[in-house]
Amino acid sequence: QVQLVESGGGLVQVGGSLRLSCAASGRTYSFSRMDWFRQAPGKEREFVATIGWSGDSTAYADSVKGRFTTSRDNDKNTVYLQMNSLKPEDTAVYYCNLGGTNYWGQGTQVTVSS
Q1: Torsion angle of C-alpha atoms 5, 76, 57, 97, degrees rounded to 10
Q2: From its phi and psi, is residue 54 left (phi > 0), alpha (psi between -120 and 50) or beta?
Q3: Distance (Å, rounded) from C-alpha 81 to C-alpha 14?
Q4: pLDDT at 100
Q5: What pLDDT score does 1 carry?
Q6: DSSP secondary structure code for residue 15 in this structure
Q7: What kind and span of H or E run contains 110?
Q8: C-alpha separations of 106 from 39, 54, 55, 58, 114 in Å
Q9: Cβ contact 57:5 at 8 Å
Q10: What is the pLDDT of residues 58-113, one digit of tens each?
């Protein structure tokens, strides 16, 4: 069994920064890819970023490339999403996912005001 708990969301002005965290429990975490997704009101959930189990491999959606950075600390069972230069279109609920599985966190709201 794996549990994922996101935190770090909030209200920020355009151009600001936030760092999301996803704390995981369960033995499969350390050997798994971790993904970030987001879902804006009225839109489908979309991929944001992914990070390999060792942290050496990352990939990003074009919409966030150069602004967002994902990292992980396997000693703390935590994945991070550093979000810089935030835009109003980044407003969404952000979720972490144990890559390729049905294990999702509860989500954390990010709101970017202009």
Answers
A1: -20
A2: alpha
A3: 17
A4: 84
A5: 82
A6: T
A7: strand 108-113
A8: 12, 24, 23, 23, 26
A9: no
A10: 999 999 999 999 999 999 999 999 999 999 999 999 999 998 899 999 999 999 99
Distances (CA, A) of 12 to 65, 69, 78, 83, 90: 19, 17, 23, 11, 11
Using alpha carbons, select from 93, 98, 47, 90 the residue that is nearest to residue 72. Answer: 98
Give the whole-angstrom CA distance, residue 69 versus residue 80. 8
Specify whether the CB–CB gap between 35 and 50 falls below 8 A.
Answer: yes
Distance of CA 19 to the CA centre of its chain: 9
Neighbouring-strand partners of residue 57: none
Distance between CA atoms of 18 and 108, rounded to whole angstroms? Answer: 12
User: How far apart, in Å, do the first and last CA atoms of the chain sit?
Assistant: 40
Averaged pLDDT for residues 18-44:
90
Residue 98's H or E segment, with its range, is: strand 92-98
Helical (H) or strand (E) element with 35:
strand 34-39
Look at the chain and count its residues. 114
